[in-house]
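Section 4.2 – Deliverable D4.2 (structural model, holo form)

The reporting period included a commitment to supply a predicted holo structure for the target in complex with SN-glycerol-3-phosphate. Inputs used:
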Amino acid sequence: MRKYNALINNELIDNGQWLEIMNPTTLEIAGKVSALSAKDIDNAFKYARLSQEAWEAKHLLDRINILKKFKDLIVENKNEIAQIMTEEIAKSLKDSLNEVERTIEIIDYTFEEAKRIDPHSQTGEGMGAKNKIGVFSRVAKGVILAISPFNYPFNLAFAKIIPALVMGNTVVFKPATAGSLVGAFISKLVIKANLPKGIFNIVTGRGREIGDIITANKEIDMISFTGSVNIGNQIRKNGSTTDLVLELGGKDPALVLDDLNLEKYAEEIISGAFSYSGQRCTAIKRVLTTNQIADKLLPILKQKIEKLTVGSPFDNCDITPVIDEKSANYILGLIDNAKQNGAKIITGYKSEKNLIWPTLIDNVSIKMRVAWEEPFGPVLPIIRLNSIDEMIKISNESEFGLQASIFCQDISTAINTAKKIKTGTININSKSQRGPDSFPFLGIKNSGEGVQGIRESLLSMTRYRGIVLNY
Ligand code: NAP
Ligand code: G3P
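Output (structure tokens):
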């Protein structure tokens, strides 16, 4: 049985309280992590604050060199990290390893990009200022709270932690409960890499028990959160700080505007909708198209979806169990609701505990919940509409605004449609996706606040400091 400790000031915490972590594939206990108390959490922030000035005072290249030792340990342990992820979140072994490798690339790129966050100078002459030069540098915000979700426990943790640390902030990191084994496994690597005490603290425990205590701590200068809209909104209300970056849910539409390359469109749509069993913020969560196109697209989608393998993440199946039985019930509830209201199930709609077969639903109407809610599971609704304008309207009526896809060979139509879609990013002729990770990544409306991405995170985790010379 895996048993990993939280980390405060480079000390492994054993307060005698443990939180059990489920294996979604076997529905047995995969391991335990520390369940921290309010006092432990206070200590984590106390040490993060105490260590911050000295860490920031180090030269950028010294900070990078220190962090490189930690990155090297991630590289050494990448197979073990992937194995733990597969055990606790049922992501296929292949995809878990991809996630770790993708994160290592992000870390390397962050080290390089940080070197380009140079100060700039201004004279103010255009405003009539005389004999002045202002030098404006980016300096650390202070103590950053990083909270990650279950679905990318490694990637979304380090896409926050590394830019924060590189720029001289210190970090308190709260992993999702499903994802805490990976989170707490890192504790030993922090110690082994000999990172300066207190700069990187890992606090574990159930969000509903300690979440409010964590986010209300007075030492926090910024919160970087990825997760659901509900918890994001709770943090907006409860957070002790006004500096927030939130990456929240999505209901990404795929608008299919022509039938000129349906094989390719279907491949992208299926990969977008069903990778990691649909548990991606950027998953394609509804297809909007016309009757005519739907009639041709549907048989292609059906045939390809029925070829997806369903089963264990250790066998690298395409569709694996969703995170828990509560999520499975929610997903099945959305399908039931569509079926009861006249939608047609084309394939799937079979389940065993939390393993749900990939489900394609046709004739979904805008009165059905699955047209608007985020299932976070292997479900693809098709909504038949009359025109591109109607597709744009239904896309934009969503509470979410993360990403969208447009499938269309005529580039002018595609771009003109993209300009009318209200989401952070619009992908033409590809599934919705965050990557490459150097791109700015943002959600509007209920999908988030602020911008992530490598350069954008380095910027959001710093503030300007101007020093003005008068001569
Ligand atoms: P979640 O339930 O909102 O949890 C996210 C994190 O918040 C977890 O670490 C959770 O800890 C913690 N938490 C729970 N209650 C809290 C509280 N009161 N205060 C502070 N933190 C609290 O989300 P999830 O189920 O892990 O992830 C799925 C959601 O994330 C989906 O909606 C998905 O779209 C979204 N997501 C968005 C992006 C993006 O980039 N836009 C990327 C990935 C995922 P516990 O696990 O211990 O409860
Ligand atoms: O960074 C991981 C998550 O935010 C989305 O990534 O590649 O599934 O679009 P992806």
